[in-house]
Amino acid sequence: MNYILFDDDTRNSLKPLSFTRPISELRIGILTIKEKWERYLDSSCSYMTVDYLQKKYPTIVKESNLLINAKILPNKEITKAITLLKPNEILIIGNTVIAANIEDINLFDFARTENYTNVEYNEDFVSVENTYDIFSLNDQEIKNDFALLTEGRKSMQLSSSVNTIGKYPIFLEEGAKAEFCTLNTNNGPIYIGKDAEIMEGVLVRGPLAMCEHSELKMGAKVYGATTLGPYCKCGGEINNVVFTGYSNKGHDGFLGNAVIGEWCNLGADTNNSNLKNTYDHVKLWNYSTERFSKTGLQFCGLIMGDHSKCGINTMINTGTVIGVGCNIYGSDFPRNFVPSFSWGGASGYKEHLLNQFFKTADAVMKRRSKELDLVEQEILSQVFNDTSKYRNF
């Protein structure tokens, strides 16, 4: 069977993170959604997403294809139900199409369910519907992914200099380092990926996930349900944050209840508020409704798209959404919704010119031996054009 993870209209509510990737490339827990499905299915998966992303994230089509909604987080029960689908059957929960077994994917229309034989599914399932779900669900997903990655395996030896306390396990992959730090696993496990490092004086309360080559810098304080994607470097105080990958918060400052895309950099002493002074629930910009929408959350900090940066001493307000390719600086709070490719801060914005952006992005990526190739430039150019209507400076 050939597995394809398809994006539905939920991708609009997952912007700015989904501007530059399919839903299944979102990281939550230790793994991306695609990586989770590949482990549950014991098979590779491809993508069905918007046209401008398909060159980087292609669809692989075969005679028999099983399409799975990319926003669904897998478990054993739903995986079994999906794999038992017969040709031209679809699995539906309420108004949500979970999966479809179909030969010709060009004829597949998840809005026209009457064309297929519906199979009801009545078990619980978890899906990523909004950007803030990523940090809200991260606690349980770290635990789930930890079990997936470590079952039947033996951890590398933890240094005797590390102070440990707690009931959950700690797992070190090959090349992982941790010295003279304190690791508390009373609330969840700690996963230290290949060649990742926890430096001296770091205080951690799990659950924590560190992907390959990530770093926690000296004296960092990390509270639970935090994920550092590949090659991320983080310091200061961090609470319930998901770093997608290749992003840095290298210095002091607080970041809480947040999701940071790839190739971002938070300047020294950047702080975000994750709680309103009134203790009211937080509203957050939603690209689907194109307005600020209720989250139902009392704690909600920052959502930042790929390739965005902020200068030293940046103050970020509760419930702030910063788009792709932004450069934020200044001595006061920037607005709660910063459109993609904005340059400036509270004193005003101008458009971040695309050629100037490409020059910076290329320099940043080369530091990690990556290249801003033509495919990446085409994707970012499309995002630039699609978001121009928001840049009314």
List the SSEs and their pairings:
Elements: E1 2-6, H1 33-41, E2 45-48, E3 65-69, E4 72-73, H2 76-83, E5 89-93, E6 96-102, E7 117-120, E8 126-127, H3 133-136, H4 138-150, E9 163-165, E10 170-172, E11 177-178, E12 182-184, E13 190-192, E14 197-198, E15 203-205, E16 208-210, E17 215-216, E18 221-222, E19 226-228, E20 233-234, E21 237-245, E22 248-249, E23 254-262, E24 265-266, E25 271-272, E26 283-286, E27 291-294, E28 302-304, E29 309-310, E30 315-316, E31 320-322, E32 327-328, E33 337-338, E34 342-345, E35 348-351, H5 354-366, H6 374-386
Description of the structure:
With 393 residues, the protein is α/β, with parallel strands linked by helices. The protein has two domains: 2-127, Spore Coat Polysaccharide Biosynthesis Protein SpsA, Chain A; 133-390, UDP N-Acetylglucosamine Acyltransferase, domain 1 (3 Solenoid), CATH 2.160.10. The strands form seven sheets. Strands 9, 10, 12, 13, 15, 16, 18, 19, 21, 23, 28, 31 and 33 form a 13-stranded parallel β-sheet that branches. The chain has a six-stranded mixed β-sheet with strand order 2-1-3-6-5-7, covered by helices on one side. The chain has a five-stranded parallel β-sheet with strand order 11-14-17-20-22, with no helix packed on it. The protein starts with a strand and ends in a 7-residue tail after the last helix. The mean pLDDT is 95.
